[in-house]
Amino acid sequence: MVFLVPFDGSYLAEAALQRAAEYGEALDQDVIALSVVPDDEAYAIDVGWYERREEDPFTVQYVANKLREGVVDIAPRAEFRHERIDHGTPAAIATRIKAVADDLRPAVVFLGTDDIGEIARPVTSVAGGVAADATYDVHIVRYYAPPSIPDIRLGEGQYTEQEQ
User: Fold this and answer.
1) Which residue has the higher pLDDT, 126 or 82?
2) 150, 139, 143: which is closest to 23 by C-alpha?
3) What integer pLDDT is reported at residue 109 of this predicted model?
4) Which of 25, 65, 98, 148 shows its CA 20 to 30 Å from the CA of 37?
5) Which domain holds residue 97?
6) Which three-class secondary structure string do you get for the chain?
7) Ramachandran region of residue 28, left (φ > 0), alpha (ψ -120 to 50) or beta?
8) pLDDT computed for residue 142 by the predictor
9) 119-153 as b/e, with b when 16 or more CB fall inside 10 Å?
10) Does residue 149 lie within any of the structural domains?
11) Is the pTM of this model over 0.85?
12) Could you tell me the CATH number of the domain that includes residue 67?
């Protein structure tokens, strides 16, 4: 089983990756962070992936390396994968994420999004386009820190760390 996390370096993508890494460690599952990088300098500048500099010309690999560093900082055991596309539209990004998900067949896709309402509008939302696929579960992360969960009994004779 694998957990897939579309990762664009945003605050909530970081939260989704952190959550997937926690679940992956607890359940002994692999985590794959996937960055879809359009070959479009203006798009990379708009989303904060790149600042125009002569010493560092824009390339998809340059952006992918920056995103990989972010993944390693948050989830060192996660595998990083990037995909290049020509255009940075939400529909194109969602289509590529879904294609990778079709190949990987993840058990869960962890999506970081602060506007659950966007899920209903897949044409304008990467998250909505990915969440619409019924071949995998979707874990939506809307907050960086998970809500507080009271202690739970794990099974006969097993308790959370706080109860011992």
Assistant:
1) 82
2) 139
3) 93
4) 25
5) 2-144
6) CEEEEECCCCHHHHHHHHHHHHHHHHHCCEEEEEEEEECCHHHHHHCCCCCCCCCCCCCHHHHHHHHHHHHHHHCCCCEEEEEEECCCCHHHHHHHHHHHHHHHCCCEEEEECCCHHHHHCCCCCHHHHHHCCCCCEEEEECCCCCCCCCCCEEECCEECHHHC
7) left
8) 78
9) beebeebbbbbbbeeeebebbbbeeeeeeeeeeee
10) no
11) no
12) 3.40.50.620
In a domain, 155, yes or no: no
Give the long-range contacts of residues 56-64, CB within 8 A, separation 24 or more: 60/84, 63/35, 63/37, 64/35, 64/37
Q: Which of 27-36, 52-61, 107-116 has the highest mean pLDDT?
A: 27-36
Q: Is residue 92 part of a domain?
A: yes
Q: Structure tokens of 156? A: 């006969």
**How many domains does the chain fold into?**
1
The confidence score (pLDDT) of residue 74 equals 96
